[in-house]
Amino acid sequence: MIDIHCHPLPEVDDGAKSFEIAVEMLKMAAEDGITHVVATPHCNFRYAFDLGQNKKATAELQKAIGDTPQILLGCDMHLSYDNIRRLTQDRAPFTINGTHYVLVEFAEHFIPEQMDNVFYEIQVAGLTPILTHPERNAVCRRKIQHLYNWVTRGCLVQVTAQSYTGGFGSEALRAVEQLLDLNLIQIVASDAHDTRHRPPLLSPAYEKMASERGKQLAELLFTKNPEAVIQGKPLPPGPLPISPDAKGKKRKWWSVFKR
Ligand SMILES: [Fe+2]
Question: Which uninterrupted H or E stretch holds 180?
Fold first, then answer.
């Protein structure tokens, strides 16, 4: 499995509180069967994003843990006006492993209609936005049609593994199930911040998905799609998104397994 959203770099944001905890997190990820971890420090009004510091921390951690998991760099980009400018003017510091994929997180009180333009601007700059954990956002949960519109225009959706196993409450869990029913999720990631409350584990969610929705989908969302992202390649064929308006006429996901 490949984890494209994680906060193991020590003392750069609200993730790992020390180098030792960071090492523990990465060892835990390796034991869970995770081969690559993308370290994605926050870039928002609370935490400055310092690429030099992040690269240094990554090299030190890799040396401490050995080859597995391989640590790559990205950014958990808060969609503020300033950040959008920074991203579209110089993408290099912020994208995942230097590819055209970038993790984006909504501002606190975002207005979905305005995001149409934001995503358009990001895509015109040659980037592919990966929207992080919409299932944990009350506005997103109420506006699934917007998610459908963004996904059909090339935006990707990443949900948190712990949301799918109930760790973020019943509403987030229900939203993940609904998004899965509509084929609106491309990637599951840990968004881990520590070893206890938000640990870097994907296998519990993988096992649940494999048993309830089939191994083919689990492989796609936990391994194949994230692998394409870190390599900067197009995603492999997957189930086509279904509009929430088509409710009641829901098709089985494997009958539309093509892109
Ligand atoms: Fe995050």
Answer: helix 170-181
